[in-house]
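Hi everyone,

Forwarding the result from last night's run.
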Amino acid sequence: MGSEVFENMIPVPTDRSGTVHGRLESINGDVVTFGGRAISTRFSGKWEFVEKLPAEWAPGGLSATFIGLKMDKPLYSCLTKAVNADGDQLRTGPKWITSRRGRLNLYFDRLECGDWIIAYADIREAVLSSFRSPVLRIPGYILAVRTDDDTYHFGLNGWRYWNGELPFPVTRQKTRLKMSPISIVARAVLIGYAVYFVWHWVASR
């Protein structure tokens, strides 16, 4: 605004005349630039993912309230089962039996699951696979995130959030969830036990 530069903060409200140039960069890397001969800013609606900054941070003694991005509040949070493993994990099996259970938190600049902290800048590839479970046909997703050192796989429920824009680039695909031999055997044993239990209950009446 004129000769003043505001970085990562916005004065609200403000009405300024003079040369204005701006650049806004979204969390997914999209950039919007604008320019004009005046600018007016006002609060509208509920504050979300922004916070009021201390008055002493205001450049040049401006009386306007300054707001900045709130980086410590997740954009989205959900329960997950996760494994750290190479290769195709689009199948049920031993690794998923011993998977990490916890909460996946997506922030502006990173995702976290327990002590796993993955900066979006470190992601080399992210693939979101949608599927339906083999037996009950329940929708779900597996998010595979590859960095230089590790590949993480997050099993997710079929919430609508994953259909929208994510805070990092992602490739989407539809797939079928495969069943490993050990999963097939385990399910056969459970079904056999359930049938035996029902038969024994009926026979004893």
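The radius of gyration is 25 Å.

Cheers,
N.
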